[in-house]
Specification:
The chain has 408 residues and is an alpha/beta fold. 26% of the residues lie in helices and 20% in strands. The chain is built from 11 helices and 18 strands. The chain has helices spanning 24-31, 36-41, 63-72, 78-88, 106-117, 184-189, 211-215, 238-245, 292-303, 354-365, 383-399, and strands at residues 2-4, 7-9, 58-61, 95-100, 123-128, 135-136, 149-153, 155-157, 171-175, 178-179, 196-199, 222-226, 253-257, 281-287, 310-315, 344-350, 372-377, 404-407. Strands 3-4-5-7-9-11-12-13-14-15-16-17-18 form a 13-stranded parallel beta sheet. A 3-stranded parallel beta sheet has the order 6-8-10, with no helix packed on it. Helix 5 (106-117) links the parallel strand 4 (95-100) and strand 5 (123-128). Helix 8 (238-245) packs across helix 9 (292-303). The radius of gyration is 27 Å and the shape is globular. It starts with a strand and ends with a strand.
Length: 408
């Protein structure tokens, strides 16, 4: 070091504070990736960092954040701390995750949502931890016209008369929610550009979605639907499924949950040659593969999706139904089913039944482009049955060596 006129001259080899000298938008991008409590604590690094965190564009007030508050702060101060964070923010909050617990006061939550509605919020996840009661959405939420992604859990939705829709909403997730009677259709039709829709069971089992409300989702590319929430739907074959969903021209990914929904034999079957031409991924959950009617329905659905590339089937973990005989045999002519475009198939909670092996064999036989089948047996499967299942899969692996059959 050299001293010039009584001052210290900084060496050109001295380390520089590159992080502090980065552009504000880069620093904000970094802070957005930290847990909120860690981002706020950067204010003690230096005078220059004191207010950097106030430019955050993402707020994640989730389970981990509240766990941190419980460990470090008095429970009566939680709402005050969160309000203080909101008041000090200077940037536009584009993303917010707010987990509502029983400690928070509804009025405080409504104030925070009012703040977000004035700050260009685009991605919002809002929900209660427990389903003992529902959180009624404040009217402020319906004025967030810039929303692109909305996820709601354990919420009560009352549409205000001033609500004209979410013109920019692309993604919507609804879990354990409740609408006013007949208002779901009104809500969904006011989201004209909606592309991704996920709906689980409603809070009130009596609340239902009308089939024609689903069929009108012309722009939807990804649809996840629990079939038990659909009004007056008795599934008798794949025809019921295709008639329910209508002709959704943009649909690329479909996830159907058969919870509380069985398949009743005897329904008329017909082909839908032009339906779901864009569909590439299919997930079927809570499928009772011991039931012949349901297994037949699965076959029919797959066969009518000639462009399907990815398939996942989650079997029911418990079944009281006596397994029916396998509905196909090793001598079946797979060419009559038509070639499928499947590349990847996954099975979860299999028990090694003949029907399951039959389905796997069928997919192997009619999928010339298939590369991988992943199988996770049910955790309760007895060791002797597991060994028998492994033996059957080993025979299939030898018969179709180009397909990797993996147990995990």
């Amino acid at each position: 070091m050299e001293l010039i006129h009584g001052t210290r001259k900084t060496s050109k080899f001295a380390p520089q504070d590159f992080i502090s000298n980065m552009p504000d938008n880069v620093i904000t991008n970094i802070l957005d990736r930290l847990p909120l409590q860690d981002a706020v604590r950067t204010n003690v690094l230096s005078r220059n960092w004191r207010f950097k965190w106030t430019m955050l564009s993402q707020l994640v007030l989730d389970y981990d954040f509240f766990k941190y508050l419980l460990e470090t702060e008095d429970i009566s101060d939680h709402a005050k701390i969160i309000s203080s964070i909101f008041l000090q923010l200077r940037g536009a909050i584009t993303t917010c995750v707010l987990t509502i617990n029983n400690v928070l006061d509804v009025e405080d939550i409504n104030h925070w949502i009012s703040f977000l509605s004035r700050n260009e919020i685009k991605n919002l996840t809002l929900g209660k931890v427990t389903s003992s009661s529902l959180y009624k959405l404040p009217t402020h939420l319906f004025s967030c016209l810039g929303l692109k992604h909305l996820k709601l859990l354990n919420c009560l939705i009352h549409l205000p008369t001033t609500f004209h829709g979410f013109p920019n909403l692309l993604s919507l997730e609804l879990w354990q929610i409740q609408f006013e009677v007949g208002k779901f259709g009104e809500f969904i039709t006011r989201c004209p550009v909606l592309e991704n829709l996920k709906m689980g069971v409603f809070y009130d089992p009596k609340s239902k979605v009308k089939p024609d409300e689903i069929a009108k989702l012309a722009n939807v590319k990804t649809l996840s639907l629990c079939l038990c929430i659909v009004e007056n739907t008795t599934i008798t074959s794949s025809t019921t499924i295709f008639e329910l969903l209508g002709n959704l021209p943009q649909l690329q990914e479909l996830d159907l949950d058969f919870r509380y929904r069985g398949v009743i034999e005897g329904g008329a079957k017909k082909r839908f040659p032009t339906a779901f031409a864009c569909l590439r991924a299919l997930k079927l959950s809570r499928i009772d593969l011991s039931n012949g009617a349901m297994l037949s329905c699965v076959f029919e659905i797959i066969r009518q999706l000639p462009n399907l590339q990815t398939l996942e089937i989650i079997a029911t973990s418990v079944s009281n139904v006596v397994p029916t005989p396998a509905i196909c045999s090793p001598e079946v002519d797979y060419n009559t089913m038509g070639p499928l475009q499947l590349r990847s198939v996954g099975f979860i909670d299999l028990k090694g039944s003949e029907n399951e092996v039959c389905l796997i064999t069928c997919l192997l036989g009619c999928s010339p482009f298939l590369k991988r089948i992943g199988i996770r047996p049910h955790k309760s499967l007895a060791r002797d049955k597991q060994l028998m299942f492994d033996s059957k899969l080993l025979k299939l692996q030898r018969a179709y060596p180009v397909v990797a059959i993996n147990l995990y």
